[in-house]
């Protein structure tokens, strides 16, 4: 059975046990259970809240500021959800991992974006988020003279889903409209405050104390690859190949291309690192395999089952990628002898997408993708990496001939290159499949883990070649917000694995240094706590700003609508307010349903 089935069985068992306990009167009066949902009430802590609420001027000023921020985000969330809903109705996207049932559950290890390895940090962030949110409501209740009936937690089985402060209904009705509005805004204000503090720590001294260890971090090895056969696995760092030091993926590729030796000595886990992983040397017997393929590739090969090996190119035995390029030479076509037969293919960089307004499309090239670039400016191109290398030597605005294979024939287009937003070089405006002619060929087979990219995205020094936030966003204070939102969803947004945090399985890729170096490996724990604390509090704050009842945004919408309508010459202000809040709330609900379920329902 899969994990989701086990979770559902556990929920049923919990519900049945809770039902029996309630039937036999074994539950305390402060605990109420409805199926898998549990509510725990308490009157304790009210005196403490009264004490915290003593500086009333401070809390009113604090929540007035927070209310302004909340109103801006409310408007932004309304427009975002409305426009996204309309877009999905008009152009339904393909379902993604976000639309899978298990990803609607806020359960680490079940939700694909909440790793089990950092479950304690996630639960801690959730608890802190709930406490400060509802604590804010409680404090402002007392500041505005609203009595508190009780407080408590709302749980899904044993997992906290929410906390609550239950105001006395009569005193809440008697409170002025401004006081109630500040009370509703206090929760999200505190969530955003926690986010700012956690990010300030993470982006400052914490990430400044984490450096990328030398070597190429290994995410895993392709099945049937030489690296897998040599025992190179997830968590290893390749620090030397054939006596040549390796500092990252680029230097590994350069070391492999520089030699045609079939057997290489590979050093793993050398140099400084945070983990006590065994340093060792292994022998890798190189052979050329197809590790991946795009649909409808000209070789008609699909990876699956037994590994696909390439033994000859144009009748010449090959076992390395450099040998493959030499065997192809200047020929635009090559005969490949593989473990699944012999095929003849055009050799070049496989284009999966041509931007409709990009330089290549503007030159008259076909825009339906599935074309192959075989040469640029007279230079032979045999792979996507060749194409990148040639473009690196060009300049924006330069006009160069680009040779394409499309529909069984070769055609040349005069292309005026654009500017690459990443490095300022020439730009074609195309998406590429890595490798040659829709085939991912490798003579080694170790997959890189983007350790440096994660550090760079979090504001640290990721080292040469590490990806980072670029453009105007890099200079914006919203950069931290952007990173917080995308890193756990990096596979969907950035094309790299989802960020799990600095867990035990990846600490071999990092070393501890800088201002918090005295903490040793505890720096990674602190980094995980800060990251997930910020991420969860940001999610709680933004979600509660949606202008729909019973969320805080919906309650603020009601008090704001009442304030505006009360100044208008209308005979039935209550009806107008109810129409506004109901209309906005229903719109938000439908937009959320479309956002979550639309791609599946409409495809």
TrEMBL record:
GO terms for biological process: proteolysis. GO terms for molecular function: peptidase activity. SUPFAM superfamilies: PDZ domain-like. It comes from the Archaea. SMART domains: PDZ. The keyword Protease applies. This is Site-2 protease family protein. Keywords: Hydrolase, Membrane, Protease, Transmembrane, Transmembrane helix. It comes from Halogeometricum salsisoli. CDD domains: S2P-M50_PDZ_Arch (cd06159). The chain crosses the membrane at residues 6-24, 65-89, 113-133, 192-213, 478-496, 516-536, 576-597. Its main location: membrane.
């Amino acid at each position: 059975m899969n994990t989701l089935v086990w979770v559902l069985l556990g929920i049923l068992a919990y519900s049945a046990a809770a039902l029996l306990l309630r039937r036999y009167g074994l539950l305390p009066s402060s605990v109420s259970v409805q199926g898998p949902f549990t509510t725990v009430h308490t009157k304790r802590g009210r005196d403490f809240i009264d004490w915290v609420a003593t500086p009333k001027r401070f809390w009113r000023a604090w929540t007035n500021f927070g209310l302004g921020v909340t109103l801006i985000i409310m408007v932004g969330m309304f427009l975002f959800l409305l426009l996204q809903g309309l877009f999905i109705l008009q152009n339904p996207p393909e379902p993604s991992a976000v639309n899978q049932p298990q990803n609607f559950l806020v359960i680490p290890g079940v939700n694909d974006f909440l790793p089990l390895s950092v479950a304690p940090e996630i639960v801690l962030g959730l608890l802190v988020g709930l406490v400060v949110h509802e604590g804010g409501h409680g404090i402002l209740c007392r500041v505005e003279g609203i009595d508190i009936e009780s407080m408590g937690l709302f749980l899904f089985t044993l997992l906290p889903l929410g906390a609550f402060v239950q105001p006395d209904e009569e005193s809440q009705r008697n409170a002025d409209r401004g006081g109630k509005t500040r009370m509703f805004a206090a929760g999200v204000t505190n969530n955003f405050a926690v986010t700012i503090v956690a990010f300030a720590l993470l982006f400052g001294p914490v990430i400044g104390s984490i450096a990328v260890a030398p070597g190429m971090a290994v995410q895993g090895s392709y099945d049937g690859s030489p690296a897998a056969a040599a025992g190179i696995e997830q968590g290893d760092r390749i620090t030397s190949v054939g006596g040549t030091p390796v500092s990252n993926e680029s230097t590994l590729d350069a070391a492999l291309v520089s030699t045609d030796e079939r057997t290489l000595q590979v050093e793993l886990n050398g140099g400084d690192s945070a983990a006590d992983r065994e340093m060792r040397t292994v022998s890798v017997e190189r052979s050329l395999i197809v590790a991946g393929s795009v649909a409808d590739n000209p070789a008609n090969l699909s990876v699956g089952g037994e590994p696909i090996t390439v033994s000859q190119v144009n009748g010449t035995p090959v076992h390395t990628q450099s040998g493959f390029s030499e065997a192809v030479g200047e020929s635009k076509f090559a005969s490949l002898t593989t473990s699944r037969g012999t095929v003849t293919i055009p050799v070049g960089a496989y284009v999966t997408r041509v931007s409709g307004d990009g330089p290549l499309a503007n030159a008259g090239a076909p825009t339906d993708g599935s074309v192959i670039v075989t040469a640029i400016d007279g230079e032979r191109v045999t792979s996507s990496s060749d194409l990148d290398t040639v473009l690196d030597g060009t300049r924006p605005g330069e006009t160069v001939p680009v040779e394409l294979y499309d529909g069984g024939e070769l055609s040349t287009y005069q292309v005026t290159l654009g500017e690459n937003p990443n490095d300022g070089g020439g730009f074609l405006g195309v998406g590429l499949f890595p490798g040659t002619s829709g085939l991912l060929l490798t003579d080694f087979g170790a997959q890189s883990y983007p350790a440096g990219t994660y550090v760079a995205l979090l504001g640290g020094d990721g080292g040469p070649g590490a990806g980072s936030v670029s453009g105007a966003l890099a200079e914006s204070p919203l950069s931290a917000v952007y990173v917080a939102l995308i890193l756990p969803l990096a596979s969907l947004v950035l094309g790299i694995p989802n960020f799990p945090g600095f867990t035990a399985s990846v600490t071999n890729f990092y070393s501890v240094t800088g201002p918090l170096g005295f903490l040793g490996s505890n720096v990674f724990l602190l980094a995980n706590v800060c990251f997930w604390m910020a991420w969860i509090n940001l999610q709680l704050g933004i979600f509660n700003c949606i202008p729909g009842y019973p969320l805080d945004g919906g309650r603020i919408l009601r008090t704001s609508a009442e304030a505006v309508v009360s100044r208008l010459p209308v005979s039935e202000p209550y009806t107008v307010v109810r129409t506004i809040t109901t209309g906005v709330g229903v719109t938000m609900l439908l937009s959320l349903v479309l956002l979550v379920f639309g791609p599946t329902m409409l495809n």
